[in-house]
Amino acid sequence: MRLGSYIRSRVPELLVLVALELLLALVLRISGMGTDFVAFVCSIVLVSAVVAVALGFARERGFWDSLSETCSSLDNACLLPELIDRPEFPEGQAAYDALVSVAKSANDEVAKQRRFVGEYRAYVETWVHEAKSPITAARLALSNLEEDADACAVCPREVEPVVPRLRSVEDELARVERYVEQALFYARSETLERDFLVRSHSLREMVASAIKANANLLIAAGVTPRLGEGLDLKVFTDDKWLVFMLGQLLQNTARYVRPGCEGWPQVWFDARLLDEGLANERVELTVRDNGCGVSAADLPRVLERGFTGDNGRAHKQSTGLGLWLVARLAQKMGVSVAVDSAEDEFFSVTFGFPANKMHYFED
């Protein structure tokens, strides 16, 4: 708080003081007091007023400056009353009490919302686990029906058209299962630290697991995985979460296969060690396909939540959550993500894993 602003806030009191000063001088002159005596008395009153203003400014300045500095440095303003002392002057006390009341109300609302979000997340996780059981049972039943249909020798002509339909239903169930799995990882992304175990893992093993988990989808789309160089490198990460992230990229590759692709649709996995021996030493894993790619206008936004772009309009099944969820999980795991693309040529995602063993994910 500046002296000028403090004085401007005290203008009414100062005007009253000036009026009283003039009245006192007039009374003293009417009473027959000499000019020197009147000037002496008025000087004493004036000095007393200046001292009072200075003391008031010094007393209030500490509180207001502390309030301003603390407020500007805090990310959560609700903690403000806990970090400053209650002042001695009435105006500051009123302001402090109001801050305490507002902060308490805000903290109560935040706690209420956290409880609600926690309960909702627990419900989603429970629902996902419960939903997996009937999906698995339905896929098993379909598999049995396919085996019975293949083994039926009595009426092969009547059974033959049924098999593709059964497999089509199985494909749809697999798609539902992928969405259910995505919902589970989305719900857990808010509390990643509770289900996050950092260990040294081989990139080749995790890539192979992701390919195996999405093999049927890749085969149906005609996509061929290609394991390149550097996959024998090891990184510090959680294998379950990374396999899920790689699976999201493989599902995007299968979804956005480019029509008339030269040769056949492919997805490449390559890794390399960069800046070895330096503080920013890291391992980069690049997943690149030769699909329809992303336009230059859409590329900066592909990691945004719900963004589908031109490709999403052409593919009605796009949700705009896959890449966003990958980027979100990577950020919480301390893994960098970079995307690159050329329309009708390729799309690539590069993960950067810090080589420092002491690197932890963000809360």
- The total count of helices amounts to 12
Task: Estimate the mean pLDDT confidence.
Answer: 80
N-to-C series of helices and strands: HHHHHHHEHHEEHEEHHEE
For the sheet with most strands, the description reads: 5 strands, mixed
What is the global morphology? elongated
Structural class: alpha+beta
Name the beta content range: 5-15%
Report the CATH superfamily of the largest domain.
Histidine kinase-like ATPase, C-terminal domain
Distance between the termini: 37 Å
What is the CATH level 1 assignment of the largest domain?
Alpha Beta
Q: Strand order across the biggest sheet?
A: 2-4-5-7-6
Number of structural units classed as domains: 2
EC number: 2.7.13.3
GO molecular function: phosphorelay sensor kinase activity
Organism: Parolsenella catena
Catalytic activity: ATP + protein L-histidine = ADP + protein N-phospho-L-histidine
